[in-house]
Amino acid sequence: xxxxxxxxxxxxxxxxxxxxxxxxxxxxxxxxxxxxxxxxxxxxxxxxxxxxxxxxxxxxxxxxxxxxxxxxxxxxxxxxxxxxxxxxxxxxxxxxxxxxxxxxxxxxxxxxxxxxxxxxxxxxxxxxxxxxxxxxxxxxxxxxxxxxxxxxxxxxxxxxxxxxxxxxxxxxxxxxxxxxxxxxxxxxxxxxxxxxxxxxxxxxxxxxxxxxxx
Length: 214
Hints:
The chain has a single domain (25-183), classed as Jelly Rolls. It contains 2 helices and 13 strands, in the order H-E-E-E-E-E-E-E-E-E-E-E-E-E-H. It is of the alpha+beta class. The protein has helices at residues 2-18, 189-213, and strands at 25-31, 35-40, 45-51, 58-66, 73-83, 94-97, 101-106, 111-121, 125-136, 142-145, 152-160, 163-166, 178-183. Helix content is 20%, strand content 45%. The chain starts with a helix and ends with a helix.
């Protein structure tokens, strides 16, 4: 009987922890607050080298601003994450790339397009990039925002593997609309409650054993 009760309590604690709500997303970079009013167009990959703080950073959400010049339309989009370990600090090692998203609907305004990232580890400085193709009926580009409210931007880059150009010297405002998130640390509330239940049961058992010994 005692063994059955032990298994029952352990099962309850396990189910309690399994039903805990998933960790919320925590922003490590946010440049979506202050629009500059300009848009940059290119058929190449383009994005920003960003600097964030924290440890064990694993990106799960990447949102990039895209604008189609005030006209609703569609575009094919692909996102990338790079380490800045290339020549002269350019994007080098490809950390992740999304599948090409086909015919993404755009309103013509500044649309934040979300890319689900499968928990990709990034350093404190890295580059996000996007490649826009097949935009209809007008060309779609990246709206400029500045300054970021979370994190900072070091450089803008365009090009792709084999040849990157630094946008800082081109006269282009290379601070683009984007938001990047990682999971928040799991809450200790559910763990604490489960531990309290287990310790309470252990205490009751201990008192029963003490009473029986007397």
